[in-house]
Amino acid sequence: MLFIEARFHSTTPPPLRVTELMYHPAEPSTTEIAAGFLDADAFEFLEIRNVGNSTTSLTGIQLTDGVTFDFETATITNFAPGARAVVVSNPLAFSQRYGTALPIIDTNTGSLRNSGERVGLTGGGGVAIHSFSYDDSWYPSTDGLGFSLEIIDDTQPTTTWDQGASRQTSDQSLGSPGAANGNGDSAAAPPIAISEINYHPPLGGYEYLEITNVGTAPVALFDPNEPTRTWQMTARVRFTFPENLSLASGAHYLLVPFDPIVESATLEAFIALYNVPSAVGILGPYNGSLSNEGERVTLSQPGTPSDSAPTIIPYTTVDSVTYDDTAPWPTAPDGPGASLDRTDLTSASDDPANWQAHVGGTAGNGPPDLFKALLQTYFSAADLADPFRYNDWADLNDSDQDGLDLLTEYYFDLNPTLVDADSTCTMTITENITYITYRRAKNIEGITLRLECSEDSMNTWITMPFADELISDEGSYQIRQATINEGTANRDSLFFQLRFSR
Predict the structure, then answer these.
(1) What mean pLDDT is predicted for residues 389-405?
(2) DSSP code string of 311-351
């Protein structure tokens, strides 16, 4: 426990964000050409959203860089909290493609560069509100193939908006102007998780994706009201699931880049190579390939078309992950023969600490339990067979009475039979930044670390976001440092704790 005193204040710019770009629209359809719209650029748009909690005036707001627009001439002058509207290249063309019910702020000057460029939003006196760059190499399906480029979380710090990992393709063709993207406000997503990614197999291996039902009941991978509307993979790797397909509780599907029905010899080789259980379904082929450098993988479900666009089926994200081949992501899956396994299927999919490298892949077998392997190393079979000592809650035991339970000993790479709790974690404070240095086993699997804070250490504990970096490599474990640099309201005193879960 630690007592902290800090006083600070900050100023907040208008909470406006450019949340969606249709920078390289699909070519005009026959109907659109007949209506006189011959240039795809006429269908460009930028979506603006008020991410704040109160109405914001658009007076003095301007779009700068790339396309330009002065909101002084806008048809909308005040923006309600959560509101979305679009700035378009050609209002008539936009209405032809998307209908007339969507809120249009006005027409911009210029056009968005297909290869990527900087887009800026400024306030009165040219004060920067929000600025970012995009690149057409991030998601090829947004570069003329009909999909827009959307921000995944429009409440994240604006410093991350220049990163491809903060983006995703729209879940539906033609984008979702004026509506929440796949990670927006919606009902709770079905309990289907992207659980394994084999993105860079060695020579003779195969790419594949694994999805798992982490719920307690079967999940239909289609719209029960319209069974022909099935689930899809909707990022660079694209796949439409067959009709009338469901996934049982705890079961897996493997998605592969070959046709398992037509290419029977390839299927047999795949099953033999990865020891795929007979009960695991194998689906394919998916379109595209998994990037060796990392990319976004998205699983989406169909929704109900809106009255303004009855022919466009909206898709919302069920699960999505942006993996990478560089640290802090595990690097072993990048070619040597390991897959990328998700350790906690109910925790954050984009957290590198929630993924592990598994040599040879698991392909429908589920991840190995290295925690149980640790118990088998230090304790006898008789001890482990004793239900009163080692049961489903064995991770809570403290066999050596050093104040650390077995799960924490495993995470810190300690001997659970020796009193060795010293020097596992230290904390320092510099102004408003908290540094927590701790040790972590290199081969850790299946354990999620959370940093939590409380004002009184008795009641509510709040999970704190933190940046994690490697300080040194010490053989079987690493020394790592977590940095917490976000202030909280009434931060007169705070207590911190590290919490581990399986």
Answers:
(1) 61
(2) TPPPEEEEEEEE--SSTTS-STTBSSSEEEEES-TTS-TT-
